[in-house]
Amino acid sequence: MTTQTHLIHSRRFLPLFVTQLLGAFNDNLFKNAMVLYVVYSVYQSEKAEGLFSAVASGVFILPFFVLSAISGQLADMRDKAQIIRIVKAAEIGIMIVGAAGLFLAWKGLLVTGLAIPLMLLALFGMGVHSTFFGPIKYAILPQHLHENEVLAGTGLVEAGTYIAILAGTIVAGWIPVEWAAAGVILTALIGYMVSRQVPPAPPFHAAEPLDYHFIRASITLVRNTAHDRRVFLAIMAISFFWTIGAVLFIQFPPLAKNVLTASKEVASLFLVIFSIGVAVGSLSVNALLKGTVSARFSPPSVILMGAFVAAFYFVCRQWVPHPENGLMDVNHFISQPLAIPLMLALLGIAVSGGMFVVPLYAFLTTFVHRSQTSRTIAANNIVNSGAMVLGSLIATGLSLAGVAIVNQLLLSAAMCLVSAWIAAQLVKAERAAL
């Protein structure tokens, strides 16, 4: 923890940390304000709400799949700090479009014809923003930090991301939509100003021509990254983790409304608990590993995560809805007999998930040459996004087929077992290398 405290006060780390924190906050302020408004104010059926939530997730994820190869090449061949500033400047324009959609929704003007398309366009833009920023926020760490600081820095970035998700989720669930419209523009402006303080991070070799053929570039990037078995297994394990996360985040708003008969503030509370839990898990695993990059805690962590998902499912199955009294606010929800077990199960999912994924990200930045780190993270993002799109499609298909949202939780629990098996193979490869 001393290393983490030291990093927070260092210019080598603090501007990057704050920049990514503000970006994650803005992502989630906008995305949750949009989804919660549409689910609670536009659509009136579980099927339509689940479908929209899945479509929104797919729109955000798609750029990772299409553009990650280009973003990885660019980040390894150009100054990473300069790219950060360009990306953060673009965020201002993207959020102006998104704010226009939120404003029209607030006014009730052309909600389905213009407001929702504008919001989805901005969500796609934020996906592009995150695609180009994502490889850098991890790949820049070995360049600015000492070797014994990388795991701590990765844990702080991951924890900071989920603290930002927490803050964005709280704000989106509790402020009016017109305030959210102003907030996303203001946050983008502050993020750009902070990004100008990130120290230079020049490339380790001369610039090479970029391959703009995204299919060929993506295949080449993943193939070149997969030659190291440990890195390949880490990418696969992370991909299953984010597939699980994508499915859960798709399910939370319609599950809160239709299964638990709870208000949008309760749906926001679920995401808050999830974010706190991942942040706690991210910091805890660094303390357990004492700064050493190792996957040995990942298999038991994700098995525990699956057990908590199953517990969450069983509590939801036993939940007694109260539709005759309208949607429950937070105080009414917490007073229900099963509310505490439900929230503890959700917290357990998140803590164990954070402990699972942080060492795997550290693997990706420490077991390849520094000149390849951005492309390694980009390859990870390609596989992750493909897995998350698949998860979104499965969730969409299950919703269209009439499978209840609560029963879809079992899919997430089953995927945890696959992640545990992959993580166990990674531990074996790690021990073999030693």
From TrEMBL:
The chain crosses the membrane at residues 12-30, 50-74, 86-106, 118-138, 150-173, 179-195, 231-254, 266-289, 301-320, 340-364, 385-403, 409-427. It comes from the Bacteria. InterPro entries: MFS (IPR011701), MFS_trans_sf (IPR036259). The keyword Signal does not apply. CDD domains: MFS_MefA_like. It holds the Pfam family MFS_1. It is a multi-pass membrane protein. It is found in: Cell membrane. Keywords: Cell membrane, Membrane, Transmembrane, Transmembrane helix, Transport. The keyword DNA repair does not apply. PANTHER family: MACROLIDE-EFFLUX PROTEIN (PTHR43266), MAJOR FACILITATOR SUPERFAMILY (MFS) PROFILE DOMAIN-CONTAINING PROTEIN (PTHR43266:SF2). This is MFS transporter.
